[in-house]
Amino acid sequence: MQSRYAVIFLLSFVLSVVYADEHKIIAFYTKNVARASEKDVKLAISQVLQANTMETDLIVNEVFPKNIDDIINGFISKKYAIITINAVDFIANYDRLAPLSSKIWTLSKNQNHKYSTYMIVVRKKADINSFRFKTVAFLRFSKMQEIFFESYLFEKYHHGIDYFFKKKIPFDSSSKMLIKLFFSKIDACVVSKEGWDLSVEMNPQIKEKFKVLKVSKAIFPDIGLTISRKGEKKVSQLYNKMIQKRISIAKVNSILMIYKARAIVEYKEETLKELFALYQKYLKMKKKYEKQ
Amino acid sequence: MKSSSQKIEKNFFLTKIFRRIFLSFSISITVLILVYSYVTTGMEKNVHIEVLHSKAMTLANSIVISCNNAMLKDDMSFIVEYCISIMKKNSDILDIVVTNYQNENIEVKHNSWKMFNKLNEDLTSMQKSKEIFKMHFNSKLNANVFHYSYPVRLPGIKWGYIHIFYSLKGYYSALESLYKSIAVLLGLIFLATLLVSYIMSREITLPILKLTKSADMVEQGNLQVRADIQRNDEIGDFAKNFNGMIEKLEKSHFELEKQVKERTKELEELNSILDEKIKVAIKENSQKEQMLIQQSRLAAMGEMIGNIAHQWRQPLNTLSLIMQNIYYSYESGDLDREYLEHSMDKGQKLTQSMS
Question: What is the complex's ipTM, to 2 decimals?
Answer without folding.
Answer: 0.71
